[in-house]
Amino acid sequence: MGIYKLKCLSCNRILEDDYTNKCNSCNALLRTKYEKKQLTLRNDLPGIWKYIDWLPVNSYFETDTSIKTYKSNGLAKELGLSNLYISCAGYFPEIGVKNKACSFKELESVPTYQRMKEKNKKGIILASAGNTGISFAYMSKITKIPAIIIIPESAKLLVPYPKIDTVLLIAVQGNDYFNAIHLASRIKKEGFVSEGGARNIARRDGMALVMVDAAFTLKTLPDHYFQAIGSGTGAVSVWEATLRLLNDGRFGKTKTKLHISQNHPFNPIHNAWSRKAKEIDVDKDMSNASANIKKVKATMLTNRMPPYSIIGGVYDALRDTNGETYAVTNKEIDSAIKLFYELEGIDIPAEPAVAIGSLLQAIEQKKVKPSDKILLNLTAAGFERLKKDHGLYSLKPTYIAKNEHIPIEDLPLDDL
Length: 416
Ligand SMILES: *Cc1c(COP(=O)(O)O)cnc(C)c1O
Ligand SMILES: [Zn+2]
Known about the structure:
Distance between the termini: 31 Å
Number of helices: 14
Strand content: 15-25%
Radius of gyration: 20 Å
Strand order of the largest sheet: 4-5-16-13-14-15
Bound molecules: pyridoxal-5'-phosphate, zinc ion
Oligomer: single chain
Helix content: 25-40%
């Protein structure tokens, strides 16, 4: 099982995990140090638990959640690539994944709930405008651990159940995700934890399984990794997995290069990295944020406060892997969605289309060679397919808040 300690990436202190997200004296990320340098596959365990050695938990629950890496034929041929691998944690029955939250956020929700259970936490509080909310609502249904989820009223959480009794969904009027975050930060409930974003090691190590699964499939680390990012937490997680896999010793010596992408015109991380800047400058990198956010199709990529400059965060991951960033237009997204459906046979939303657009740019700019081993993370797939096969329902808010300042006593928190 995942016997582990936590290491502060600033002062190097080793900490015990008491649902710890931060060292007392530093602001840096903590990283999990697993006792097992080499991971032993546990094919006797369900779904992603086969990688339990490198998850911050001591036990597991019954789950179908899985991750698959497969070698592309259609898209690979079209792009002239001989070693293109696709990672999918969505709903794509033909390759053997049927994750009903349809995105790689499902990988983080599984160990997060298990770690909560082991640390005697009663429930979780989070703000989300999309896939994180869907994954945590879905996993709340599976684990019966309650979740308080705050969304902007304009958002929809599409889940595979008409109703989930363990979820208290609160909508804040309007369409600003910021207000939902603000309200979520004010809510306190005995025994409940806030989801913790990039600081939550269970979230990161869950998403890291994208690279772990790829390494076990390819029998080596890939040369390149392509992903669309908002916060960049997924990319940081995959980088951490790369370091663990190098240390494991069985997967070669290539430190996988990160290629991360955002949707033009909201691409603050691309702007900051293009200037080689260690901090995002609100004026230079994120001007007209509200207006630009309204223009992008890939709405999951519009994080205004990504963990970019924090020690162990996105900047460090890019620097350590000699990484590249890209800005992809809505037009490139449209053609990538169409191309992918025609060549690989599954529907994808705008976010993975951004990653595909960036792969096209990288080929054009000769940042990858035709024979390189390339891993493309399809961060979400198959919503349309799942709707057809099974049905998807928009989760109904239990309560609609006029604004983010409403008295907390007004919220039906005791209903859970
Ligand atoms: C969350 C999300 C991303 C971005 O992930 P990061 O946390 O920024 O790494 C990309 N695509 C989809 C579909 C997502 O849900
Ligand atoms: Zn510290």
